[in-house]
Amino acid sequence: MIELHEDIRRGIAFLEAVPAGARDRELPVLFVLHSFGVSKELVAYFGLMGAQRGMRVILPEAPGHGARAISDPAERALRFWDILCDYVDELAILREGLLPRIGGGGVALAGASMGAFAALAATARHDFVHATAAYMGTAYFRDAARTIFPPLRRWRPELAGEHDAKLSRIVDYDPSARLDALSAKPLYLWHGGRDDVVPLADCLRLASDVTSRGAADLRVEVDPEGGHRVTDAAARNGLNFLACALGRGQFLDT
């Protein structure tokens, strides 16, 4: 049995999934970060599957989404990279606000698409992150911003200076500038071979870069037929990887 709770801390709404009767017990902690334009409820299956593996799963809502939604889709798209950076910052704020409940130990992260971008950035920035599962993500923000929601609506080489100026904030969040920190932590990477949003090449590039830096624990899975969507097998494999990284062994679904 699983319990699912709605809560809010420091203005950040989130769902919390735990094994039944275990909300007040000490449990390994997993934060799940959702993708752009959807809701925390849409990734609640990660909460169910994580709680089945003995974890406390926190699913925070991203800035510009849910109760804080930016109503104009075009405006929200232009703010994609700021939303992403704010998501990384809010993860630390929420974790601090939840310390009395979750304790001060290491936590794991899982994220898909924008959530994977944020998970990789947070893993590189925050010491409290112990292990991460990134689905369909990239660690190369400044390169990705030319094709994924460019701040000028469309990438144009003649406006490269203006483009880069609008992205000045992401320089400090770009995981590719902190690859040594990423390499030091257990990392599960999953990508679909037919992803038409985030190129598979970004996943393979990251795997190569962290391997060359002596990756502590790296697992890479590619589904040749997969698109920009987390498969059931990928979700299960990533959660098993994180459960093991948190010292909980490989839990079976119940």
TrEMBL record:
A Pfam family of this chain: Peptidase_S9
Peptidase S9 prolyl oligopeptidase catalytic domain sequence ranges: 107-236
Signal peptide (residue range): none
Transmembrane parts of this sequence: none
Protein's GO biological process: proteolysis
UniProt xrefs under InterPro entries: AB_hydrolase_fold, Peptidase_S9_cat
SUPFAM superfamilies linked to this entry: alpha/beta-Hydrolases
Record GO terms (molecular function): serine-type peptidase activity
Protein name: Esterase
